[in-house]
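Researcher: Structure prediction, please.
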Amino acid sequence: SWSGYQTCYIITRTDMFSAAVAGAPVGNMTSAYSGLRLGTGLGRQFQYEKAQSRIGGTLWDSLDSYLRNSPIFYAKSVKTPLLIEFGNNDDAVPWTQGIELYLTMRRLNKNCIMIEYKNELHVPRKYQNRLDYSIRMKEFYDYYLKNKTAPDWIINGIKFNGK
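Model: Predicted structure follows.
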């Protein structure tokens, strides 16, 4: 998820990549700040203030830093096709962060696909989902980096059937 966040951050600031994949990324630090890490029951504030994000202050004392470090607020500049992956029972990052980022990108007419794995946690654990994700990443990169024919799921999508 940290590398997923960093991927999203980088593509909102640069055009250095031709395609990107982000697993369980935080897209909006302001909406994720007061949630729970469901796996541990801990509030999420500590990780933004002092842990991974190292913002150094609370949301209300350092709002500019939270906004500046949230990819959705810079999504307008994205040119890189993005594939987002989330498990809908993610116990570390709320899967709604993926929805928020995906809907922002689509609202801005950006090239973005979101894959949701039902009943999966932070990282896909079921073999069939790990295999599916690996195949889809390869097909995504093959299409955008090697000009191979796009598989149907990239062109037409797969209908969301609810959580």
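Model: The chain has a mean pLDDT of 95.
Researcher: Thanks, that helps.
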